[in-house]
Specification:
Oligomer: single chain
Largest sheet: none
Distance between the termini: 102 Å
Shape: rod-shaped
Number of helices: 1
């Protein structure tokens, strides 16, 4: 009956490592979202500038 009295294994280090991995992956995902958002805003600004330039060019063609 000795086999029923085994101590619970110490797994605190594995738990901490697991949480560290999860939070690390979440941090990388958040950084990725921030970078994508900045790039999207920059692309939108470029598209708006191109659209404004095209509208100005069209108005010059119609006037001339």
């Amino acid at each position: 009956m000795h086999f029923l009295q085994q101590a619970t294994p110490e797994t605190t280090q594995y738990m901490i490592a697991g949480y560290a991995v999860i939070f690390g992956v979440l941090a990388l995902y958040l950084v990725s979202l921030i970078v994508r958002s900045r790039n999207l805003k920059r692309d939108m600004e470029v598209l708006q500038e191109l659209e404004a330039a095209e509208a100005a060019s069209d108005s010059k063609k119609q006037a001339g």
